[in-house]
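Try this one yourself first.
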């Protein structure tokens, strides 16, 4: 005696496939949106870090009437580690000249390196020693009286951020400054600049400058 089974093998219907594709699309959209939120938060944090550095410098100035690093009485105030007195000329620089960023501070002797030790020993910034702090993209931070090189040049105190991705430079300039997209603009106007023009860039990292 033979018994016949009435079986139907069936795959996914078009409706089921459509539902699966919609679910996958929603998951991908969520991932992309999450990445976008993380990216935007990191950019905002980068901008806020320079504001915190600026606030720390002005707090020191309010307390001691000199910029950190430039303080001519610093050696008597701070001994762990010992620092070198600045010349008190109201410039965080070597003498009165434009001074390029030093991203590798390790010891006393220059105003922009003593600046970090003095801010930390005064309790305004956390940490210890002369080492430069870093920004969210991993590069070091420096502060100096500097002649921003792209025309029109501007000799002023700048907070320097080392090795910032090109697209982050562009977004920060657009969101928080003038965002000038002219061929020779952008990095050379406003209070956020670069030592080279990051606006037309499609790759690489740049030194980003924030006017103090």
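Now uncover the answer:
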């Amino acid at each position: 005696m033979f018994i016949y089974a009435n079986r139907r093998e069936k795959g996914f219907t078009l409706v089921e496939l459509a539902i699966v594709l919609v679910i996958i699309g929603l998951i991908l959209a969520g991932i992309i949106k999450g990445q976008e939120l993380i990216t935007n938060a990191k950019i905002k944090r980068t901008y806020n870090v320079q504001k915190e550095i600026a606030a720390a410098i002005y707090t020191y100035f309010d307390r001691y009437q000199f910029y950190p690093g430039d303080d001519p009485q610093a050696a008597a105030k701070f001994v762990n580690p010992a620092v070198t007195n600045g010349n008190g000329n109201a410039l965080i620089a070597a003498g009165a000249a434009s001074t390029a960023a030093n991203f590798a501070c390790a010891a006393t002797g220059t105003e922009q390196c003593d600046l970090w030790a003095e801010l930390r020993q005064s309790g305004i910034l956390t940490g210890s020693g002369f080492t430069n702090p870093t920004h969210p993209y991993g590069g070091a931070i420096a502060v100096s009286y500097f002649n921003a090189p792209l025309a029109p040049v501007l000799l002023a105190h700048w907070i320097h951020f080392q090795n910032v991705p090109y697209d982050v430079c562009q977004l920060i300039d657009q969101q928080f400054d003038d965002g000038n997209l002219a061929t020779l603009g952008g990095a050379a106007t406003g209070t956020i600049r670069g030592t080279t023009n990051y606006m037309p860039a499609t790759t690489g990292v740049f030194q980003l400058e924030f006017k103090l």
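Discussion: The chain has a mean pLDDT of 88. Strands lie at 141-148, 154-165, 192-194, 205-211.
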